[in-house]
Amino acid sequence: xxxxxxxxxxxxxxxxxxxxxxxxxxxxxxxxxxxxxxxxxxxxxxxxxxxxxxxxxxxxxxxxxxxxxxxxxxxxxxxxxxxxxxxxxxxxxxxxxxxxxxxxxxxxxxxxxxxxxxxxxxxxxxxxxxxxxxxxxxxxxxxxxxxxxxxxxxxxxxxxxxxxxxxxxxxxxxxxxxxxxxxxxxxxxxxxxxxxxxxxxxxxxxxxxxxxxxxxxxxxxxxxxxxxxxxxxxxxxxxxxxxxxxxxxxxxxxxxxxx
Length: 259
Prior knowledge:
The protein is an alpha/beta fold. It has helices at residues 18-29, 41-55, 69-78, 102-130, 151-171, 189-202, 206-214, 225-235; strands at 9-12, 33-38, 59-63, 84-87, 133-138, 176-183, 247-250.
């Protein structure tokens, strides 16, 4: 399927690996020129070279921490008026309710709520002016089904979801669509870290932790970053213009809900 976005430009955050990399690759395959961001310059530059060579598109790497004002400034100075924005940042550490202090919540809000909001606010005026834009926020399945050990993530991502719910409906008339992708467990470094947490807390092997977690997923596997990326690219396509303010699960059926 031709997504109708060849020649457009995109900012993709946290794109050196994992779900961000999957999104960057899928957009590049559709002919989109990219500014990709991550903190590790070496991994980011290697990803940029690989994607550019594979898909013959422009890929400009900007190594920066997107959760900081300076990091966002560097990215937006490189591409101030993208057609497409993919927000993404690593989630806060797991724990239980008694572990988290005010500073922990502020850090989580800065990374997973306020940073994406700042990026959205920065790019919306030009998208509205151009009468076209696509914004996809990578959040979490915990927005629909809270995960007890991820209380910091639950809180911050729910806040972003509320912001998007209102904002998306204010800008849709201008051809700008904002939606959220809610990943379940995918084969990324984040999944490995959470597997290790299960293994350490229960005194079991990593393999047993993995088997225990896939048993909770009806698809009986972890998701692949490339299939996640293709859904992201579709939401950024010309064909997704009637999808507004939605929270789309990619979780292998793990969240057990009718709606």
